Amino acid sequence: MHRSGPVVMAWNVFKFCTALRAFGSLMILLVLGIVGVSYYAVVVANYGPALGAGGIDSLLALAVLILFHVLLGLLLWSYFSVVFTDPGSVPPNWKPTIDEEIGENAPLTNLDFSNHILNLQQQGHLAETGNPRIRYCRKCNQLKPPRCHHCSVCGRCVLKMDHHCVWVVNCVGALNYKFFLLFLFYTFLETTLVTLSLFPHFIAFFKDVEIPGTPGTLATTFLTFVLNLAFALSVLGFLIMHASLVAKNTTTIEAYEKKATPRWKYDLGRKKNFEQVFGADKRYWFIPLYSEEDLRRMPALQGLEYPTKPDLDAQ
Questions:
Q1: Of 260, 252, 281, residue with least CA distance to 151
Q2: Which residues cross the membrane (predicted)?
């Protein structure tokens, strides 16, 4: 099958990511290492000792430490939820509940469905990509539900795949996309807090004053400030991008694929689009969990069925 230039480039990128997969555990250790360095600089080296200073300095230190630990807990909770949550796999022997090819609403029997798929295979109507009503993965040799894509890194199809993230050593898909967004959100808040809290100490390096602390402590404070500033700025960019994707009910992959599509059939309005990722229960919006009620009444959270605009169902 002929592959265009951009597809070849994407394949080369995935081969690079496949090589990085061998360092999966190291990536998790790297994240924990950055957290550890930040913890030492903020808690051990600077604001922990300031608790005994008395006055306004003690109150400020207490406020910084409380906020730091709360955000750190939420960050790690969200991070490991992304790492250890399956992004969504296609159930064995999955098949559409309706004949989407001819638009009938009655469920297909196993015999009818098998004959229908056999005819489509013989006619060459099943493809890996594009916009057919029934989608088929030739690598997994199975049907693909709506919005499902094959991950060359994981070697399987992922429900509503957004991308493969080497930082979490996992795919980001239907079942852990919310957790990934919360990880970005709390990472931005935590790194911003660390940057602001260490800013006075960073400025002190460029003043002609004596700075208390050992050379190791001072070097750690300087490095932590620079690292967290860099992460805060970069994560902010990712947050803005994904906020735009959530508002339009699309994924990173879909945003690329539908460049030529003026209207997107899954775009149901910002409120409903948001709920398809975070759920309708506001109590669970800021933690990596879903309410049982949302999981029961919102099929989109399971990654297999998605409501669409009636006037755009033909897309």
A1: 252
A2: 20-47, 59-80, 179-206, 218-241
The predicted-structure confidence for 175-193, as pLDDT tens digits, reads as follows: 999 999 999 999 999 999 9
38/267 Cα distance (integer angstroms): 40
Is 301 inside a domain boundary?
A: yes
Q: Of 303, 298, 306, 215, nearest to 266 (Cα)?
A: 306
Exactly one of 137, 157, 165, 171 is catalytic; name it: 165
pTM: 0.83
Residue 171 known to be catalytic: no
Domain span at residue 290 reads 13-87+180-310
Contacting residues for 52 by C-beta, under 8 A, at least 6 apart: 58
Among candidate residues 228, 77, 87, the one with its CA nearest the CA of residue 148: 87
Task: Look at residue 258 and tell me if it is in a domain.
Answer: yes
| CA separation for the pair 86, 160 (Å, rounded) | 12
pLDDT of residue 63: 97
pLDDT, mean over the chain: 83
Residue 160 lies in a domain: no
